[in-house]
Structures are given as C-alpha cells and as structure tokens.
Amino acid sequence: MLRVVHIEFWRFLRALSRYPLELLGSVLGAVVVFALFFSGARYLAGPALFGERLEALVVSLITWSLAFSLLSQIASNISEEALAGLLEQLALTRPGLLGVVLVRALLSLLQIGLLVIPIVLAILLTSGARLDFPPLALLPLGTLALGSLGLGLMLGGLALVYKRVGQLLGLLQFAFLGLFLVRFEAFAWPWSGLGYLLPLTPSVAALRLLLGRGETPGWDLLVLAGINALVYLALGVGFFRRALRRVRRQGTLGTY
Amino acid sequence: MNPSTQPPNPLLQAHRLRKRYPKGKGWLEALKGVSLALYPGEILTLLGPNGAGKTTSVKILAGLVEPDEGRVEVQVDGPGTWLGAVLEGSRNLYWRLSALENLIYFGTLRGLSPKEARRRGSELLQAVGLQDKAHQAVGSLSRGQQQRTALAAALVHDPPVLFLDEPTLGVDLEAQEAIRAWLLRLKEAGKAILLTTHQLELAEALADRVTILLEGEVALEGRTREVLAGSPRAVYRVELGLPLEEGDSRRTRLQALEVEVEGKVVRVVGEETLWEALRILDPLPLERVERESLSLAGLFWRVLRERRKPCSGSST
Ligand SMILES: Nc1ncnc2c1ncn2[C@@H]1O[C@H](COP(=O)(O)OP(=O)(O)OP(=O)(O)O)[C@@H](O)[C@H]1O
Ligand SMILES: [Mg+2]
C-alpha cells in the first residue's frame, strides 16, 4: 500500500516536472477568479452587501473549491485514463482500479490542500474577511474530504461507463456552489435536518461556524458530519464497484 | 481432444465461454462456447479472421470482460498480477512518462519494489533493444518502439502467464525477429503464453498449440505438429512423368473428385481419393507421390474455406 502511494506520488512528480505549466495554470486561474470575484463584488456593491455574512460566504467558497476540486479530479482522472486507453492496464494491478483511484484521491487531497493556501490568501486579501483556524476545524475538514471522495467515486463510476463527464462536472459545479451557500445551520430544526441529508452540508455548516464565527458547533453537528460523510463514501464505493462490474459485462472498460 | 500427450496441469483453463453483445435489436454472439487451456512452457496461438472473438477471449481470460456463461480457472496466485498483457487497440502505457518510468510504475503497481522495478525495467528495455530510448517519453517513440515497450511492461513483474494480443502490430521485421526469439526464450523459461496474431509466419514459428476461432467458435484446435501432420484429410502431391493434356478425359474424371490438376502436378485431398485418382491415372508414369507438409497458413486457409462453403456469403 505504501509502495503504491510512493509510486503514485513519484508518477505525479514526474508528470509535473515535464508539464509544470499545467499545474501552475490551474492555481493561478483559481486565484485570479476568486480575487476578481471578491474585489469586483466589493467594488460594485460596497461592503454593505456582505456585512457580517462575509466570513460565512468566504468559508462557503473555500469549502466549495476544496470539495469540488477533489471530486472533479477523481472523475476527470478516470476520464483521462479512459481516453489514454489505460483503464485496463490499471485494472490489472495489485491494488486494482478502485485501489489506484483511492490512492490517487489521497494524493489529490494533499495537492489540493497545498493549492488551497494561495487561494485562501487571495480571498482573504481581496475580501477583507478574517478567519479563525481552531484545531477542531480539522475534524469537519476531514469529513468534508471523505464525503467529497464518496461523491468523486460516484462521478468516477459514471466516467467509467460514459467516459466523458466534463459537461456534467460543469453543471454540478454550480449546483454545488448553491448547496454550499445555503446556511442550513441557520434554519429551524426540521429543515436543517433535511438539509443535512444532502451531501457534505453538515461539514460545511460546522466549518462556517468554526472558521467564520469562531463558534464551536454542537457535537451533534460534528457527529452528523461524520455520519453524512461515511454514508456518502459508502454509497460512492458501492456505486463505483457496480459501474466497474457493468463495464466489465459490457466489455467497454478499455473502449473510449 | 486427446489428453494423452498433454502435460497434466494447465495453468489456466477456460470452459465453454459464451459472450454476447447487444447489437441493434438483437444480439451479437461474440463467443459461442469457447474452451481453451494454457500450459506452462507453451505458446498457444489464437488465430481467426477479424471479429472472430480473439480479443474478447483474451479479455475474458484476463478478467477484464465478464462472460455470460462459462468459467475461467487459474492455477496461479497473485490477484491481478499473475498475468502480463499487451492489449489490442489500447496504448498500454503513459505517453507522458519515459519508457523506463512506465516500467518502474507498472512494475511497482504489480508488486515489485521501485528499485527492483527499475532494475528489471532496464534489463527488459535492453532485451527489446530500446536501451537508448529508455529516457524518452513514450509518446515520442515510434509505433513499433511503443509496442516493444508495451511488451516489456507486460513482463516487468515476471508473471507466469502472458497474454499478447497482436504484439507485433506495426513492428518492423528486424524487431519482429527479436520479439520472436524472445518469446521462444520466455517459453523455454516456463511461461504460459497466449498469442493472437494475423501474421501466420509468426504463428507458425512460435505455436506449440493452435486454436482457430471462426465466428465465436473453435473451428480447430490442438498441438500444432499434430494438427498439421495428422489432419485426417492430408494433402497428397502426385508428380507425373508426362503432363495431362487439356482435352484428356481423365482430367474431367479427376476434377469430379475435386482433384487439382496443374500440368504434371496433381493435388489430392484425403487418402481414399488418392487411391481413386491413382486408379484413374493408372498407366501413366509417376515421378513421385508425397504427402504435402501443410503449413499453418495452408491449414488456416483450408479451415476458413471449409467453414465458409456451407454458409456462403457471411461477411465480417
Ligand atoms: N464491447 C463490445 N460491445 C459490442 N460488441 C463488441 C464489443 N467487443 C467486441 N464486440 C464484437 O464482438 C466480435 C468479436 O470481437 P473481437 O474484438 O473479439 O474480435 P477479434 O477476433 O479480436 O478481431 P480482430 O482480429 O479484428 O482483432 C466483433 O464482432 C465485435 O464487433
Ligand atoms: Mg482482436
């Protein structure tokens, strides 16, 4: 297992050293988009629009970019490998296709963690928001990552079957942004409860409280975030396995 | 099948594999009950025209396609790593990585330590004559060089079973020769190899066993030597002392027996026919009568022709 992590990391660095501009481009792109978004919004609407909600908005956007990068990286990596005709060779390995995908997701997580730092700095500088970072925040960040992994596996399963998922990702991006902007923690009980059934919402709510307001969320919310993440992870793994089985029956694992 | 001369334990056995794919409103029967066995130290060559089901068979054996019916028994350990495969029509390699990097990567994913994988990788690239290209990105190699790298990648973890689906596609003659010699060495080292190819000379040079697939069915299978020699309807070549004239009535009588006449040479299929033909030819002087040693190519064409005759017009 460690070997697989090691070799995947090595492969990533190798590819990076040959094509460094790709990564640089994606980081700069994200930084510029967020910076423009905030400075533009501030310029147009003045600070009054955001008011005390500014921090909540910033946290929503950061969590959204974290979660969405992870799940879209998983799905688009599978699409890429399908295009390159490598899915079959990856299936014929010791960890198998699911194993390889999981290890790569782990590395994506690391990479996104590093990438998000400049993005966060850009957002903070241009928006003027202030964020806390208590250690407890690592917990909902972890559940956010697990839940996104589950969703990524679902999309990855779709990518196995349909090969191209670019358009779907584009659509989902906005659906997710909407979902992440809704402050379920501010709703009355039955509605917030229903909202927390949606993917990742309890993790995002906990992070908004922790990072944005410096409040400690109730344990019930943290536990809920954990359960929510595990359920979506399990659904993701199940879905991916089914998709793999399906393409093996159709004989289309290697086709594009 | 005659089990007498076979070594007792096949490494891999496939029993009555069936696979059909949806096609339009109906089904396309890609495999209709195909059985195969791979033995250590032997090369099984799978022959057949386009669409016969060779690739489908290989992928089912490798576990990449699930059969509708039938099963595959493997007598080797190592989930996912007991085999190495060069698959048809896919790249098999990362184009952005160098040849050696690909070997290190796949070797490690198949259970070697990165160090071992690097050592094996360098050795194998040398064996396929690509040591100069080891550090060049695979995408910038020529088609044949990529194919040779893919072959090395299939072998990097030293698997007991090899599936090679048209491994010499796009490979030049010299490299083909190298691959041929190399496959023979691998066979001698005890590997069980399944090879599909459209190059009948390559098949002829390598095949210990041959299976001919036609439209998803095994049309002929057995040890190459036996199917070539002991084929029940052997071809005999009769050389006459004098040519048979065009208007000769014996000519038409021979043609009624489906005997081929060409000047001094008469070709007869099957022993009974040979005797009858000889009776027709009776007083003519004979130079020699011999059984033609049939080539794999000849056998392949004959099987193809015999099968096509009853159901003519089937196109692929
Ligand atoms: N995933 C699939 N979906 C639908 N039909 C398929 C699929 N894979 C193969 N087929 C069909 O099954 C039949 C057998 O294909 P296969 O690739 O096994 O042939 P082959 O013997 O390898 O041919 P070739 O010599 O061209 O490589 C063909 O008619 C092909 O169109
Ligand atoms: Mg084929």
From TrEMBL, chain A:
Chain segments annotated as transmembrane: 21-44, 56-75, 96-125, 137-162, 174-198, 218-240
Keyword tags: Membrane, Transmembrane, Transmembrane helix
InterPro entries cross-referenced by the UniProt entry: Nod_factor_ABC_transporter (IPR051784)
Protein name as catalogued: ABC-2 type transporter
Native source organism of the sequence: Meiothermus luteus
TrEMBL record, chain B:
Residues of the ABC transporter domain: 12-240
InterPro entries reported for this sequence: AAA+_ATPase, ABC_transporter-like_ATP-bd, ABC_transporter_ATP-binding, P-loop_NTPase
One Pfam assignment: ABC_tran
One Gene Ontology term of the molecular function aspect: ATP hydrolysis activity
Keyword Transport recorded: yes
Keywords, ordered alphabetically: ATP-binding, Nucleotide-binding, Transport
PROSITE patterns the UniProt entry points to: ABC_TRANSPORTER_2
Domain of life, per lineage: Bacteria
Family: Belongs to the ABC transporter superfamily.
The protein's name: ABC transporter ATP-binding protein NatA
Organism name: Meiothermus luteus
